[in-house]
Amino acid sequence: MSYVEVPGARVPIRMWADPAAVEDGAMRQLHNVATLPWIEGLAVMPDVHYGKGATVGSVIAMRGAVCPAAVGVDIGCGMSAVKTSLTANDLPGDLSRLRTRIEQAIPVGRGLHRAEVDPKRLYQFPTSGWDDFWSRFDGVADAVKFRRERAALQMGTLGGGNHFVELCVDSSGSVWLMLHSGSRNVGKELAEHHIGIAQSLPHNQGLIDRDLAVFVADTPQMAAYRHDLFWAQEYAKYNRAIMMALFQEVVRKEFRKAKVSFDPVISCHHNYVAEERYDGMDLLVTRKGAIRAGSGEFGIIPGSMGTGSYIVKGLGNAASFNSASHGAGRRMSRSAAKRRFTTRDLEEQTRGVECRKDSGVVDEIPGAYKPIEQVIEQQTDLVEVVAKLKQVICVKG
What we know:
Elements: E1 4-6, E2 13-15, H1 24-33, E3 39-49, E4 56-62, E5 65-66, E6 78-87, H2 96-105, H3 130-135, H4 148-154, E7 164-170, E8 174-181, H5 184-200, E9 215-216, H6 220-254, E10 266-269, E11 271-278, E12 281-288, E13 290-292, E14 298-302, E15 309-314, E16 323-325, H7 334-340, H8 343-349, E17 354-355, H9 372-377, E18 383-396
Parallel strand pairs: 2-3, 17-18
Antiparallel strand pairs: 1-2, 3-4, 4-12, 5-9, 6-8, 6-10, 7-8, 7-18, 11-12, 13-16, 14-15, 15-18
Helix pairs in contact: 2-6, 5-6
């Protein structure tokens, strides 16, 4: 589909979703964003749903300003995937041992590594820039500097919520490795620190929603936020890269006889800020629950833990600021999912997937998410599908 344009206060709201099907709270948030004095454009993805300040599934382009709540507290959250030389025929009938090996290699939930992971010992890990990255931690907000040790031990860990590690099979029978995570606790604390500062600034006092507080260009607060934002985005990228390398090591050891090889890793943020140029203007483009989908760029759009995911290639649609959805998107809150579904429902909806099926992950049940096929159909002018994947193992925190 092409987008539907809904009038907004300062810019039109371009929607790759049916406005009538979007919850009232999310529509109010979109209209609130469209009132911001610095806004130059707003694109809404088909997985849009209510968030804090700004909806999840929105792309906000501003000139000379950035809204930290429109990035989200998991700065740099995103996806990584890699195709392997294995096929479905190489997989054992019982996948529980492989799932256990993955969980042993990659800490989940609040878990940490016992010692810092040395990237130099990891399989094909790109170590250039690693030392420079950590040296820049000295410049982050003083309020978060005491988290240095924890940040180092959480590097290469999954977290909880909707984060996952999966082994998938595509429609041709090829096996893929895929994972979803972000900047862990250090990213969350940096985000919350800067959101608090933004909300205290004089120019934000008259905003329609205090959660939309922004930093403006050429101020010390903006400079400090940009430093910490881009550092946290890099942390998230390294975090996924280390997890993927650990995942690859597990697979290589488990399938030693097959001499597994891997294609280049596909990786994309979906909670982040990028400096981009549109219509002759230099803009700060915030994607909260959206991936960049420039022409020919690979991306990953996952579904829920029992459905499947898509590898896509961007079509470079400038109307969406070269963006696409980041996943299926929730159709009900976590608390609503826990009220509605049981562990028996979870077992039924994840049949055939080696995964947790206990009460701790009922809020992640496929029924709590929008149908991923419908979400893909609503953005055929944003991306083309390269591969459809179905998970056979799903590890969650």
